[in-house]
Specification:
2 helices; 9% helix; elongated; 5-stranded antiparallel β-sheet; 148 residues; mainly beta
Length: 148
């Protein structure tokens, strides 16, 4: 275990006990108070430097940490995400799936509450244009007119 100083573009700095810089960055993001209204994966860029005797030791690393959105609640208690062709479209043999860049975009729907879910295997970090990232997006009520 070591002590690391972590910060992001907000300027907030936090000293964290962790096994390595990656774990310190993850703890920094996990411990933050972010907008709970996010419906799509967000990527945080956290600067992390190890501390020796309370002083920064070396150059900080820029570490990207993904924060997936909270799954919206479902009145049935648990979502039943599936991809019925007649609802999500696409080809019958692979409903709800589209090619997108170097990956795919998959659409599913909760049959209980109509919440749409989009999973991308080739998303883009809007802050720096980096591609090839895995993301999720929830669209509560997108298919609210479904009958159980």
């Amino acid at each position: 275990m070591g002590t690391y100083r972590a910060w992001d573009e907000s300027g907030h700095r936090e000293d964290i006990e962790a096994v390595d810089a990656e774990e310190a960055a993850r703890e920094y993001v996990d411990g933050g108070s972010w907008d709970d209204g996010e419906t799509r994966t967000v990527w945080h860029h956290v600067s992390v430097v190890e501390l020796t005797d309370g002083e920064e030791d070396g150059r900080p690393e820029d570490i990207r940490v993904e924060r997936h959105p909270m799954l919206p609640s479902c009145p049935a208690g648990e979502h039943d995400f599936t991809a019925p062709h007649e609802v999500v479209g696409g080809v019958e043999d692979n409903p709800g799936v589209w090619s997108e860049g170097g990956g795919v975009r998959m659409h599913t729907v909760c049959l209980h509450c109509g919440c749409g879910r989009v999973e991308r295997t080739w998303d883009t970090d809007r802050s720096n244009g980096e591609q090839g990232l895995h993301s999720f997006e929830y669209r509560p009520g997108e298919y609210a007119n479904l009958e159980e």
